[in-house]
Amino acid sequence: MTMDQAIHERESQMEVAAAPSPPPILAVNNIEVIYDHVILVLKGVSLEVPKGGIVALLGANGAGKTTTLKAISNLLSAERGEVTKGSILFEGHEVQASSPDDLVRRGCIQVMEGRHCFEHLTIEENLLTGAYTRRDGAAAIRRDLEMVYGYFPRLKERRSALAGYTSGGEQQMCAIGRALMSRPKMMLLDEPSMGLAPQLVAEIFEIVARLNEEQGVSVLLAEQNTNAALKLARYGYILENGRIVLDGTAEELRENEDVREFYLGISSGDRRSFRDVKHYKRRKRWLA
Amino acid sequence: MLFFVEVVISGLTAGVMYALVALGFVLIFKASGVFNFAQGVLALFAGLTLHGLLTGTVPFVHTVNPAWAMPAWLAILTTIAIMILLAIVWERLVLANLVNQEHIILFMATLGLAYVLEGAGDIIWGSDVKVLDLGLPQGASDYFLDTFNLYVEKLELFAAATAGVLVVVLALFFNKTRIGRALRAVADDHQAALSVGISLRTIWVIVWSVAGIVALVAGIMWGAKSGIQFSLSLIALKALPVLILGGFTSIPGAIVGGLIIGVGEKIAEVYMGPYVGGAIENWFAYMLALVFLLFRPQGLFGEKIIERV
Asked: With an 8 Å Cβ cutoff, are B199 and A118 in contact?
């Protein structure tokens, strides 16, 4: 099944099940994040991820995507960042006060930007660290290890290689597989496409789609690769300068003229002039 | 020939002693990438505490029970408990506030810990040399004396056996257990370890506790050999070349490095010493370390320095 088919199938399934909307697994309400007590990075970001959904968080470098994800997974405090306003609800419970390991135990795990595999551990050991918080016994962990190898056959081939010596694609798979080992309900993927060949990006995104479908993992995907992200996600938010400036279903965003122009690089018809850029900036301010 | 063998053996046994101290360094370095300057003082402090508990020289104890002494096993267990408590306090007060700081800052913190512990040890237990009597085997081994006509201390054989056991246990702990894997993960990447739900604070308490226990073993061995004295904290410096040789991250490396340094400096002292007026033992280890730094900076068994292009 190609990715597009998979997505279509899912969309049609969605339409059937869409009628009563279940409470979102993740709700971020108007959060503000300040680093080092002075640097205001997020200026009121709100978003929602429905249970079992894939939502994309799009935006350029420095827009605040990573900060948003780290605010959710509570990794901010290690970088002297702080959520000063708003609230984050995971499965209906406030999570700002809980530690990152607490959140992993509850089923919300982040796959960090730049992969961050444990270089001096083998691929298999890397995957096993993902199961650190689990208490359900070695047999269950073994089973899940095989499940991860099922999704990423390439990792099985390289299971005893030091992660530091594997390729970028393999490391990204390792990072996702490692997160999967914690049996998450929700994964926060931070730029899984970074530095990878388009073919690999497609491969990894397809696996994410399958994980979502077969394992029921909800996904919040922060991406710069708007095109690929909007193929995978059903809903998207666009983040600029620490603010959400646009949101809508993947379809709507793909059709939106500004998104086409500035994020997808497709201009409709003639080459546009600088005036339109200014028009866009004005629009943006109005939206924010 | 017999003389040479005796020199080598005395070098090996000295090497085991270095290795015991170096082991503690390796533990902390593996789990946090920090060179723990306080490891030698930790050994000293553990030794002093154990001695104090054994002989009942704990401060204020006379107000409770003047003729108080503990049996050896209880004293050792209590000392282990104190080392673990120390690890917890140290983590709460200092390390918890230094998450995600540069390694050099953590290193400076251990330097501070070294002075605090040394001072505390001095105030609580006094600065005189103490004889640690745990009933460890003393004197020459009859077996070696009768069969090979070699003089080998029983205590040194005991220390070698202890070091061997310690290495096997630690190697299994690091490579086969969940916590051990987590320790290595933390050493590689703090942030990623946090992201998969490894609590840095727990890991730090564990690793400092283990280092404290290893320090206690080193303290016992050194104490039985030459008494517990404050120069013990300086042995930490001898552990540095041992680590450079063996590799900062390798537990077997600490042992092999210790043995090479021990044997090397004894042989150099005995056979080269007379030509340069002696006292080679004091600097030979550092020179050897320097040579290693030039040609194999990760040491004999250290983790490969992974560089991808």
From this structure: no
